[in-house]
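Let's study today's protein:

:::
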Amino acid sequence: MSVQRLPIAFERKTALATLAYAAAIAALLAIGFGACATLWQSWTDYSSAAANLEHLRAHKALAGMHFTKQPPAGSAYIEGQTATVAGAALQQRIGAIVSEAGGAVVSSEIDLRAAGADNGRIALVVSCDLDQNALQRTLYEIEAGMPVLTMDRLTAQTAPGDEKSPAPRLRAQLAISGQWRAAQ
């Protein structure tokens, strides 16, 4: 038997066809893997976003965030013709808040220089006696009400003579400031 050799041109065409077939298969596999990777990334992004949304919904429900309540009425500024009059209005407002909460103002001082009354800032330092619940109510009313006020500093300790009481009263010192503008 004699084995005949195929012509060299035929061998080259066969080799090129095989190489082209292998390249096409490799390209299709690369495209398929790329599509799967993109699909997987999209799915993980969606899952992460869905988990974040559920977390926010749960947090909103826990916080009891219902936006049906109207914002507090009144001006955002402490009003008065002068900084001194505005300071007196702030002093009166804080005194009323402390009294309504069940506390008593021991002393108060308007500090026009430290707050920068020239720039429209009024500061008040108040010392008061009240229990813990009254302090919480006072802080809430100061922060949530109008005019917009900032609690700059708070120190609290047991009031003198109340150390052994089961529910001692506190001596709190509040440093409060707010923006004022002249009344029109």
Summary: The longest helix spans residues 8-63. Residues 122 and 177 are 5 Å apart (CA to CA).
